[in-house]
Amino acid sequence: MDQSGCPRNFHEFYEHAKLMSGMQTKQDAFGWYCRTRLHYSCSTVCATFTEFVVPELLKRGILRLRVVTLNSDDHVDIRRIKVKGLNFGPVNGTIHCLKMYSFIGPNKNPIEVGSHNMLECSETGRVFDPTIGQLTGTMQPALFPSLREFRLDFAGVVFHLFDSSQQDIFKQKQMDVDLARMTNKPHIHPSRVAKRVVDALLSDDCGVSTYCSHCLGFSTSCSKLLKCSACEKVFYCSKTCQVLAWKGHKVDCAK
């Protein structure tokens, strides 16, 4: 635990939470861990990217970013990235049965509908979802080659896809700016967040050797991150995360 009593990584979280209800397996517990860490809303993350991160990149002379998580050498023009929105329902179609009398039309069962935001490059059609982990219980963002693949793999039934309006983006931007001012926390101002993101993006290792590649946590006190002995490219806070990550990592590790 750090000085404030918060777990530095998933291993520390699990050691304190494993006896709680809903934590029967490490995978179950990891889902809860992710949701406690991913506290920025999808609209905040997407609006911050287009309204602050992109201008910061342009200020530093960067117009295109390379897509490194797909089997291609595609580059995306950051000026063509826009915020998309969608409405979705749960996969199982949760239905609330409400008894009511209506003289307007036939009774219908209302279905829970949620909203979500992601980013799309209008030039290549690539879709980047930085906060999908809030729905799937993972710390990793997701990248899709097109809206079609995104819709098929989304963690819910997508009812409607649309371009977020500039008015909605401005409202979210203003709320995030006001939050930093009202809470007297200048470090959470979107402009400062954007500078930290770009600094990390332009660093030699993008921070991969300073935090766990699975839970994005830091090493336990006085211990170093564990390096994958096979590829020596990814690091873990503990054996716990290394084992959980192996199923997804073994494909890249073999390359």
From TrEMBL:
Domain of life: Eukaryota
Gene3D superfamilies: 6.10.140.2220
Keyword Transmembrane helix belongs to the record: no
Annotated SUPFAM superfamilies: HIT/MYND zinc finger-like
Residue ranges of every copy of the MYND-type domain listed in the record: 212-253
InterPro entries given in the database record: Znf_MYND (IPR002893)
Keyword S-adenosyl-L-methionine (UniProt): no
GO MF terms, alphabetically ordered: zinc ion binding
The protein's name: MYND-type domain-containing protein
Alphabetically ordered keywords of this record: Metal-binding, Zinc, Zinc-finger
PROSITE patterns: ZF_MYND_1, ZF_MYND_2
Family matches, as Pfam families: zf-MYND
Organism, scientific name: Cyclotella atomus
